[in-house]
Amino acid sequence: MPYFDQFMKQWKAYLTQQLSQCGLCYEVSDAGVAVDIKANSLAYFAWLRTHSIELVGIDEARDGVAWVMLEKQLKAFADKAEKGTFDLVSKLHIEESQIQIVLNFSYDDEQHIVYVS
Question: H helices within 51-60, ranges in order?
Fold first, then answer.
């Protein structure tokens, strides 16, 4: 499975947990997993924006920016993981399935974005 897909699954798990803490449910549609993750992410970002004192006056367009920034970070980490995994496999003579990368997500309520590390 490509790393981007794995990282999106990690985001989905984190997102599901966060939505639950906000009193919201992760909604599933017939449109597909990628569309569901984006739609639920935008709903989460909207909830965060409307419940934050620091973000008073910020409009819903900022939710889309938060999504684009998150997606770009996940793609960049996936690219790094692909290259790094190849190097580890070749240098350490291990199988790719032995390598596990776990991401951390943190929300910055001043910038209204999620940082990935």
Answer: none
